[in-house]
Amino acid sequence: MQQQAEITKTPASTTAPTEDEAPALPPLRPALFARYTDLESLRYDYPLVLLETGDGGPLFRPLSRIVDDVLSVAAPPDASGEAMRQQVLRLEARIRRNVALGREGMLSDLWQDNATRMVKESGQSPFGSLGTNLDIARKRLTLDGVVIGCDHTTPGKVVTHTWRAKQNAKARRFRRKVEGLILRLTDILKSDHMKSDEAHSAGALASAMGQDQDSSIDFGSLSRILDRARPEDRLPEDRVRRIKTALEALQCQPFFGPGRATEICRRRPAPYSYTFDSCAAALDALRERLPAILEFTKAVTIAELEVENKYRPDLHDPIFETFDVSDLTADQMELLPGSLILLHDGVTESAEIARAFEALAGGLQITVLIQVDDILGPTSPEPPRNSFGAGTARLASMAMGLNNAFVLQASSAHLYRMQEAFQRGIQHQGPALFSIYSGATRTVPGVPPYVLSAAATESRAFPNFTYDPSAGSDLAARFNLAHNPQVGVDWPEHRLDYETADGERQSEALPFTFADFAIGDVRYQRFCHPAAQDDWTPDMVPFGQAGSGPGAKDRIPEPYVLGLTPENGLLRVGVDDKIVQAAARCNDAWRRLQELAGINNSHALRLLSEERKNREASAIEIAAALPTADATPALPEAPPSPVQLAQEPAPEPTGDDPWIETARCTTCKECTQINSALFKFDENMQAYIADPDAGTYRQIVEAAESCQVSIIHPGQPRNLEEADLDELRERAKPFL
Amino acid sequence: MNASMSQCLMQMVHTDYVIADYQSEIAPRWCTGCGDTAILTAMQRLCRDEQLPPEKTVCVSGIGCASRLPHYMNAYGFHGIHGRALPVAEGIKIRRPDLNVFVTTGDGDCCSIGAAHWLHAIRYNMNMTLLLHDNNVYGLTKKQASPTSPQGMKSNTTPFGATLNPLNPLTVTLGVSNVSFVAQAVDWIPDLLYDILRQAYHHKGFSFVRILQRCPNFMEHRFDDWVRDPSKMRILTHANGLRLKPEVSRVYKNQETHDPLDMPRALALAALKEEIPVGILYRDPTVPCYDELRAGERPSTPGLVELVLNEEFDKVGIWPAETAPAAAGE
Ligand SMILES: Cc1ncc(C[n+]2csc(CCOP(=O)(O)OP(=O)(O)O)c2C)c(N)n1
Ligand code: SF4
Ligand SMILES: [Mg+2]
Description:
The complex is a heterodimer of chains A (736) and B (330). Chain A is of the alpha+beta class. Among the domains of chain A are: 47-149, no CATH class; 659-733, Alpha-Beta Plaits, CATH 3.30.70. Chain A contains 22 helices and 22 strands. In chain A, the strands form six sheets. A seven-stranded mixed sheet of chain A has the order 6-7-8-10-9-11-12, sandwiched between helices. In chain A, 34% of the residues are buried. Chain B has one domain (5-296): Rossmann fold. In chain B, 34% of the residues lie in helices and 17% in strands. Chain B has a nine-stranded mixed sheet, sandwiched between helices. A two-stranded antiparallel ribbon of chain B has the order 5-6. Magnesium ion binds at residues 64, 106-108, 135, 137-139, 146 of chain B. Chain A: This is Ferredoxin. Chain A: It comes from Tropicimonas isoalkanivorans. Chain A: Residues 1-26, 630-655 are annotated as: Disordered. Chain B: InterPro entries: 2-oxoacid:Fd_oxidoreductase (IPR051457), PFO_beta_C (IPR032686), THDP-binding (IPR029061), TPP_enzyme_TPP-bd (IPR011766).
């Protein structure tokens, strides 16, 4: 709310008549609403385009930003560009008007449609400047998706879109994995088939050559040459059966629909639906689908073992025979689609909300939307939901206590600025709760849902926050309150410019409080006491400042907030205890959130002061203990030397025994061919002397001579009876 | 839970492959004393130490003595056509990235008839290991000069001596864009051969290992000077480079610390004439791999391949209006 309000006391009205008959305005509205009576002329976060993008891309983007992106590349920054800018902005305004009237659709269609109409209405030819410029701009439009407005359907649409994006990403991962396994299992069966008589038959060989029957090849003879199918080359029968069963389960899975070019098995049922409007229905479905989930999960696991050739019937058969729910792991469930449960406060029965909590706590793969249309709830006399703090609006704060669920609370007006949080919600691998205030409160007639939902966040009645358990192990990483206005204070402050009865301009900084938010609700108007400017008295104190100011003690202060008549006349609205107490509860809840976010955290402040004291004390101790002489500087580390294995070198035998430098043996087999009992290969296929007495000295000397790397050392003869020893000793000399 | 159920179940299966598990039924038909034997042994040691399942390992070769290696390995193998081992290996890797792909090739197979594939394989940098058995000769066809034969070498095709300076496979490889791993080994220091292969296997990308290999039959005494004089072998070491066993270090004392990212020094070492450098000349693990860059969102099932091809054909097809193919949606 940065714009300056222009408020006049005269009912000359800033409300532009809309095409639709606008519902009557409530008798009272917060003063800050004055500037938002004509939303259609503003370029704000709506219409919002729900983008059709792949993994990790942005989920949504306001139409106005998309148009700015287009213009920044399509319109030259000079006068010619200015014409295009004006034309495209007119087109944007037209689309905005259309969406406000409920005509939602794909951006590309809306653009095309409105552009054609604009050109037609202008009387220009389609090739005139308007048609050409709109066309150039359209070609720069790279994003597309459904364009939506801000109304009571928005939370459902945005959360469904987010959930779909997550499911689409999952579907891609699922198909990559499952189709990969199908391909590999099929390959195994195919290669087994290639070893069969059937695959070697003349007919099979002929058809392998293609349709063009070539009579120059005698497939009969070819078949006879190839006909060497051996039973021992084939896969064991039980393995083939196992692979076929797994293959069928993978091909007929009912969880995701087929992708492009997925081969569809005839037995395949229609894929399951995963959106529900009650937890009961979602849990029933899960129970019903459990056998299919088990069958499929088993098949995936078996397939993974099979493609790695790691299935051992003796080890694994017993495990798969008793495979049941208790064997399902989180990562197996993560492969399958999650459920979306859309709950609507005031529409869904309240027992469902409690069930949602149970389901979330159970860690199931579910995304729950609780749409809130009414934060304040009915006032007395109906207990227990007679005022702020007791309604569904607090559920998100409570859900943080579940600890494993991703929680996002936001008002419709702020969804775009929470986009990153939505993205994280998609990435979160567990249950998620989205609590969204639509702003479509029936008891605040005439105020657009966008304005009312923004006001709910401003007034701290419905703060924006996220709790992301996967972001880290502590609150600081998990909890985020940053997407609220002026997050450090109780109530955010805004400047209001107005004109007094005498035409004098006034400017005031005003907090926007829970009381401001409440006065627009017709149910609360009996707790409000409006006073026109002539009736303002010094006892009136702005709400939030009551109890302070000069003479506060003597008089009973009358807290007020600034309000507007339907004609935009400025009023002070005295608020009585009912509203003051509700505001106090609201403020209390806000301060608790602030503490969670580390703002004015009482523990932290206390620890900080203790820590400061400790540090001062230990600094004194350290200073006292320091030696006076300089410490010896550490020696620089020696540069790394060539890596040597830590082990000791094998001792170099020096005696008379023959030996081989085994580590240098090249496996040339010269020595083993001379005598394979004397010379043997070790586990590395390198030679050593296995038994010096298994051969003659002559053989050892000859081996030494023929060894190309000269690593055989003959030593001295062991059998002194052997012939020609003198000659052999002479020949052995170079190798000793 | 960190490991998935299938991972846990797979861990139940204990493998203990020994060298014999990688030896095929066929006994090697290389000449006695041929350096190829040492290369085969180093390969089998590597498979054993890394416990590579034989069914997850493929050796692809062209034609030549060196190219007979796949027959002797108990693993998948493809004894292909002369010079064409690399395109086959690339096809295998693209379709089955889970397999460990080794290419064994000779100096004729790789640097002569297969030279074009060699250059592009370096540039593609796909995750596989190439073993160039360089005996400086065509062995299988009984002594013809190869591109790496020394100048003046008399052979059946060069009776008056080879005319040209030999091609240096190391400097050529180092000069190709996207080069990511270049090493040199010699068959007569098997421990270093093994260690270089181990590092090549662990490198993500195309690992080029040139192995100087003795052919006692047609290139007798070619490397004798270096085999007999360990001081003429320059061993390249580095903090995380070769692991030198003390027995080896004791014999091969001529060592140089070389940073595998130092390309100018790598080129200088590769061009050494008197000494033979052994070790990792160049290694850059950050070079992108073609197989990873091209890994699709989805496995290319026969159905998907057919659909995409048909869509492409339909773009240029001419259809009578009423039979136009429906746009295939998601
Ligand atoms: C297309 C083709 N051309 C020529 C040959 C003949 N040929 C067979 S092996 C070979 C050279 C092999 O040399 P190298 O790759 O160095 O292997 P080595 O035998 O030395 O290990 C040649 C030219 C062939 N098999 N195919
Ligand atoms: S000819 Fe040479 S390369 Fe071929 S097997 Fe014999 S020694 Fe080895
Ligand atoms: Mg060769």
